[in-house]
Amino acid sequence: MHRKEDARFVRGRGTYVDDVNLPGMLYGAVLRSPYAHARIVSIDTSAAQAHPRVKAVITGQVLESLKLAWMPTLSYDTQAVLATDKVRFQGQEVAFVVAEDKYSARDALELIDVEYEPLPAVVDARKALDPEAPVIRDDKEGKANNHIFDWSAGDEAATDAAFARAEVVVAQDVLYPRVHPAPLETCGAVADFDKVTGKLTMWCNTQAPHAHRTVYALVAGLPEHKIRVISPDIGGGFGNKVPIYPGYVCAIVGSIVTGKPVKWMEDRSENLMSTGFARDYHMHGEVAADRDGKIRALRVKVIADHGAFNGTAQPTKFPAGFFHVFTGSYDMEAAHCAVTGVYTNKAPGGVAYACSFRITEAAYLVERLIDVLAYELKMDPAQLRMKNLLKPEQFPYPSPTGWEYDSGDYPKALRLAMDIAGYEELRKQQAAELQNWLAGDHTGTLTGIGISFFTEAVGAGPRKHMDILGLGMADGAELRVHPTGKGVLRISVQSQGQGHETTYAQIVAEELGIPVDDIEVVHGDTDQTPFGLGTYGSRSTPVSGAATAVVARKVRERAKLVASAMLEVDEGDLEWEKGRWYVRGDREQGKTIQEIAMAAHSSLELPDGVEGHLDATTVYNPPNLTFPFGAYICVVDVDPGTGQVKVRRFVAVDDCGVRINPTIVEGQVHGGLADGVGMALMQLIAFDEDGNCLGASFMDYLLPTSVECPSWELGETVTPSPHHPIGAKGVGESATVGSPAAVVNAVMDALKPFGVRHADMPLTPAQVWRAIQGRPLRTDLAIQ
Amino acid sequence: MHRKEDARFVRGRGTYVDDVNLPGMLYGAVLRSPYAHARIVSIDTSAAQAHPRVKAVITGQVLESLKLAWMPTLSYDTQAVLATDKVRFQGQEVAFVVAEDKYSARDALELIDVEYEPLPAVVDARKALDPEAPVIRDDKEGKANNHIFDWSAGDEAATDAAFARAEVVVAQDVLYPRVHPAPLETCGAVADFDKVTGKLTMWCNTQAPHAHRTVYALVAGLPEHKIRVISPDIGGGFGNKVPIYPGYVCAIVGSIVTGKPVKWMEDRSENLMSTGFARDYHMHGEVAADRDGKIRALRVKVIADHGAFNGTAQPTKFPAGFFHVFTGSYDMEAAHCAVTGVYTNKAPGGVAYACSFRITEAAYLVERLIDVLAYELKMDPAQLRMKNLLKPEQFPYPSPTGWEYDSGDYPKALRLAMDIAGYEELRKQQAAELQNWLAGDHTGTLTGIGISFFTEAVGAGPRKHMDILGLGMADGAELRVHPTGKGVLRISVQSQGQGHETTYAQIVAEELGIPVDDIEVVHGDTDQTPFGLGTYGSRSTPVSGAATAVVARKVRERAKLVASAMLEVDEGDLEWEKGRWYVRGDREQGKTIQEIAMAAHSSLELPDGVEGHLDATTVYNPPNLTFPFGAYICVVDVDPGTGQVKVRRFVAVDDCGVRINPTIVEGQVHGGLADGVGMALMQLIAFDEDGNCLGASFMDYLLPTSVECPSWELGETVTPSPHHPIGAKGVGESATVGSPAAVVNAVMDALKPFGVRHADMPLTPAQVWRAIQGRPLRTDLAIQ
């Protein structure tokens, strides 16, 4: 089954937000701060306002008079829409110009005269809590320093006790550096406020249209039913398109002020400099183990750098909540983790860049710690993992942090990955190669073999665990069946390339036994779809996919009532087979869904209380998260002379439960693996000590291409989720979660002869070369 | 409560179909037949095709190759999209030009060379069935003559027996002439077919978007879920915008052929000449009565002129089915009616021009017959009506035609109208005035006092009675409640000025106890609304209004489940009061709908099986029609010297059950009364004997203005419909149904001294003058 949406994408017929052009539309541009931290002394907009094609110049002062200067974030913080008192990160929004064309808007930015008084910046998160550190958020009452939150999980006393008893303890500092999702399409919006009807129509490329509507309602003071958010085709999201950015609000204000539609589109550098980042976790991990490798306990301390505003999606009641999975896929007695979130003078961080909400960091840390333990115990990392992986009979597994993993057969997945890779043979080749190398032949490269095993927690879960702005993590689905039996499914999640138009149609087609082309999927428009929290955290299939299966089953049950009237038999005497209800014991007597749909809308007499349609609505509240998992093996060739790393092979065995569309699952995995290679080897957003962003273009922020990627070798196991209606688990982010550790472990494996146990990502040639030289490495902004 | 939609209408901010302009849009124009009946010998389009700005020229031959030359109508007939073999009415569609601008499209029409061979035309419906009459529909197999249908209702034998026993029998031929609804906005469409997605988006100003979608699906061979019909703001419908016209299909074909959006808009003359007409009923009525005026039976024979295609909405299993109400509001032993439908060489007739489906004709006939009986018995027409009106205790009343009138107090309504009019005093003044006139003072005008009492049957009813294309007469409603408690109601009917955005919001607000501004009403877009049959036949309130009340009550019940979880009490212990559920016996403990909506979407734990939302969907199948009624009294001044009629006063007492928005009801009544004055005195579409249409402009087809209308005097009684959830009945067409007879009866009342018993509408000065002269009148196309 090929993707239905590709028919328009491959012909260039998608409609992205920048393709939306409305009569009389104006264009907005944002003036951004050149400083990471500075007081604003004055802003003079008179020259810009005098520009003949400029229609409005909006500053924080203007917004203050409209009570719009600050907006709520998705994480219980507030963020300046346009800076008033001071700027808190380089690239922060200071003013917004609306003009008749985009060139004039940009030109006029240069006519705005802002006087700044620079302040010292907090760049290193580990120094943010120093008593003498500059205070970034002096706007917050009772926030005397840069502290945001303390969060912990697990049993600290039991963990300490296990460490006290341990035969072996290893410790390692691990940085997951700040990275940017860098979607192909930057963020943008067209805001169209109709003064007469009081209705705001907002085209914006968001992953969560309904959550955006609620925030716009709160920010702009418009009633929720007077806001329509349309999220058209999107060129990639990866969490970058979950947050509300000031530009969106400025476009709305621009439209309200001018009475015209206003378009705002970021350029690449704005996107890379000022929209939501991910990671930036300074982690310290300790493992307690027996001498034979049996892990007893895990202890973790984290400083989490959230930037200047805790602004981006963090849909958990507890910040960093998904760090809950920090024990990974392993059985142990006890574990404890403490995370402290701090403000720094950087753009807001913490977006749900696959995977969301700290799972990627947690998975990376534990997989690095396992390899560090193997290094110290001189054990094979595959054997060490096999010894400690959870056993199938342990599921559903209550984790040391109080979560319940739904299902899994972890050893099977790892064995399959090892079989595909030919693990034993690889180790033999590596040993022979090393033999040569130690014998003095330094002409070639060194092989490294890296393993990672990850467990994700996706679905953004059960309502008791988490919310956004008090809203539960549910998603709605509506299925309308037309008289001819063709249907339209309306869902609350939004695709940024995931292929929802195909997979959701497949779910309905399967449940109703009708052709997949008979179902049209509608999404991305709050006026056309039921409420729901959107697409991120791999939650579409676990939540909205479940809603879709449920709503299709409701339609099937409704069809049964109508079929019973058509066939004049009791409901209880009907049996379902693909696409039809028939009379038990008489297969000839039956009615297809199409016949039933027409009859439901026809003049057929129906029993009292049976309505003449097959439509259904549902909202699905997941009873638990789903826990996809996987075993990855990466083989690299490292050139010790240059530090160059080449990924030779990559084996990925994913278990995401039942696969709705295997081709789309494979596509998702391919993308995530490439992502992992990029993060492990190339991607870094670096800052100098004044907080200047050193990588806000694709010349500096390097993304992997096909040149850096091998031909992926995929395998699968299928452990259905017991609580999902069709047993699916979600796979969008799995490969991004699992792959960085496999690549880094492989490079470290290759560097073992040099006595290198750990080096931080990204493992650029310089970083590898320096590791080999044995020079001390700065683990925070190590790239020159 | 003022109309919410007026905020945009009075500022000129409505969006009508001609306001829809798409990038790259082309313009279509229709070439129409100058003949009423002619064979097409040849069509040469080469010159038009050579026009530099012409993109396509489409003829019936082109459509035949696409199997699109004929389309199904809403009345089980087929209609030529573009004529191939011959043309059958003046103005019929022959070719369609698509050009880069509308002027070029019109210019190119003149470059098309059509050779016609004229044929004799059938213009007088009464001659259509003559064996030697030309056969119009030689396309139809087994249709050797111009017969369409025979339909009858009532008990013929019982009626004949009652007539045989009768003390008095009166008979009268009555013509209800052909009229046109003439909405302010003509018909039009923008068709946008996307080759890549296979999706057709069709903006067209239809009263029935979902029915249109189904027909487009059948015509164009597109699957139903790949068609989106958007019916934007509409400048009046009155039944004219129910049918599918060939121009719509041509616009679709034009878009498919050119790959561009194609706009087609009629001009006024096209609208008046070729879109759906109404009436054209040649009726013969007989009344059997006692000498004291008690009516015993009624016998009616009708020749119904449906034009060249039985093309327009007639959503009954039996053509002319709503003639069922031909016994009007009166008690009698027996009644029988026979209607024969015929083809003539005129544009398709029979649109649901208020009121739909033959009620207007039936109501006019019986009210004329009552006055003819009063004339012959020399009785006061008010007294005669009072004697024969159904009594309140007869309801629910089984009519002689097998229908069941739901509720009414007819004498009360008539008495109220007489009180408002000061009937007795008027009669005294009239007698005095006549006295003067007979005494030789002929300088002034003569007063005429006319009464009519009507019963409508609206809601287009119960599914066992009728359908369109096999679809039952149901309408859907969906209510979504956002987390903040604001809601969106989606309905399947479409407003053409009726104020749905206000009245439907009021229904929801009343049922949920929330502010009316918290509800947004969405309609007119098949992608956004549930399936339903649309707005005509005064069916919005009876069917869709009922669906709205039902869906709001479903939301209330759903809210009860959530409130029970919030308050931790059993559902059974909750009581409803305006806007909130509270704990029985403890009024302090309660939750408002807004609080419940937020909680439903929050992280509140809900019992198993209770979904986290308040949304609901329904489709309402009306168990019966509703039967609004009214008593009207018209006072006219007739100048016997010139034949000029001036409407001096008009009293209208309407009973439409419960009134949702009294101002809107009054507005509907005002419009219908003006309509009735126009039809009674001015409006006529006339044809010469070759079938040339003599009135295709507003110079010839006269519509009433404020000059012709008095200040309306309204009264009301309220008899709720027992089966409608809020007791409402629908009022859109009442005044159009009831008023013509009141005006004509008033004029005939004034002309009594001349011994004039009947003259056919429209009672233009010439018609009145000739009636007085005693000259024989042609009752079909009487106006010179």
Automatic annotation (TrEMBL), chains A, B:
Alphabetically list the UniProt keywords: Molybdenum, Oxidoreductase
Record keyword Magnesium present: no
The protein's name: Carbon-monoxide dehydrogenase large subunit
User: What are the required cofactors?
Assistant: Mo-molybdopterin cytosine dinucleotide
Highest taxon of the lineage: Bacteria
List the InterPro entries. Answer: Ald_Oxase/Xan_DH_a/b, Ald_Oxase/Xan_DH_a/b_sf, Ald_Oxase/xanthine_DH-like, AldOxase/xan_DH_MoCoBD1, AldOxase/xan_DH_MoCoBD2, AldOxase/xan_DH_Mopterin-bd_sf, CO_Mo_DH_lsu
Residue span(s) of domain Aldehyde oxidase/xanthine dehydrogenase a/b hammerhead: 11-120
Keyword DNA damage assigned to the entry: answer is no
A molecular function (GO) held by this record is: molybdenum ion binding
User: What species does this protein belong to?
Assistant: Phytohabitans rumicis
Query: Gene3D superfamilies under this entry?
Result: Aldehyde oxidase/xanthine dehydrogenase, a/b hammerhead (3.90.1170.50), Aldehyde oxidase/xanthine dehydrogenase, molybdopterin binding domain (3.30.365.10)
